[in-house]
Specification:
There is one protein chain. This protein folds into two domains: 1-30; 40-237, Carbonic anhydrase (Beta-carbonic Anhydrase, Chain A, 3-Layer(aba) Sandwich), CATH 3.40.1050. By secondary structure, it is α/β, with parallel strands linked by helices. 46% of the residues lie in helices and 12% in strands. It has a five-stranded mixed β-sheet with strand order 2-1-3-4-5, with helices on both faces. The chain contains ten helices and five strands.
Length: 241
């Protein structure tokens, strides 16, 4: 390779290093990891909520940052963590909270159960961050076309229990089913999915241990719903102001 060829190769390497990943056609690739270490910790419910929703807007538009997903971040967190949000989501493989909100390592406590079904262990896991570390935000995240909700709805409507421990999910979702039936809906499964999110958020917001934090403005519990079609998170209630 002659001197001119070497200079061209070095220049191309510098362009990749500085520019984020520029293809030979001039198209900028979006997956450029960044660090948020310089950003202030979002220690209020509003700041944490805004950080999450800003990340979701990046997910919707494809302008992803993939923040703090590297060995340096892992090393910084090895001794201590301080997540700014708790997300209780469904097990659905299409709704991973860390991706949906474009967050990084150490940003979120995440619990995932079928249809956001809760019990003492799940509730205790949700409480852990706010009660021990001051995490200022809880998001209960349901989603479009939830298979767990559809299965529970059908089982309850037809009076046919599901096998094994799947029936435990059905029973946990029974209050959402009963409210949906009382109110009526053209799309009962979707309505039941949103009702389940709201009821779960209400239960967390008003429980004995979290209610004082909510009442004191130190914690917000938000119910939200994810669109599989668009990637957008819709806030149902509880958004901090």
């Amino acid at each position: 390779m002659d001197g001119m060829g070497r200079r061209a190769l070095l220049a191309g390497g510098a362009s990749l290093a500085l520019g984020g990943c520029v293809s030979t056609t001039g198209t900028t690739l979006r997956a450029v990891p960044v660090s948020t270490a310089s950003q202030a910790y979002p220690g209020t419910p509003k700041a944490a909520f805004d950080r999450l929703m800003t990340g979701n807007r990046r997910w919707v538009t494809g302008a992803l940052q993939h923040p703090d997903r590297d060995p340096t971040r892992r090393e910084l967190l090895a001794a201590k963590q301080k997540p700014y949000g708790v997300v209780l989501a469904c097990i659905d493989s299409r709704v991973p909270p860390e991706l949906v909100f474009d967050t990084g390592l150490g940003d979120l406590f995440v619990m995932r159960t079928g249809g956001q079904a809760v019990g003492p262990v799940v509730t205790g896991s949700v409480e852990y961050g706010p009660m021990t570390g001051g995490t200022p935000l809880i998001v209960v995240l349901g989603h479009q076309r939830c298979g767990a909700v559809e299965a529970a709805y059908t089982a309850l409507k037809d009076g046919k229990p599901l096998p094994g421990n799947l029936q435990a999910i059905v029973e946990a979702l029974r209050p959402a089913y009963e409210q949906t039936v009382r109110e009526g809906s053209a799309d009962p499964v979707e309505t039941m999915a949103k009702t389940q999110v709201k009821l779960t958020a209400d239960e967390l917001r008003g429980n004995r241990d979290l209610a004082p934090l909510v009442g004191g403005g130190k914690l917000a519990v938000v119910s939200a719903f994810y669109s599989l079609d668009t990637g957008q998170v819709e806030v149902l209630d509880g958004a901090p102001s």
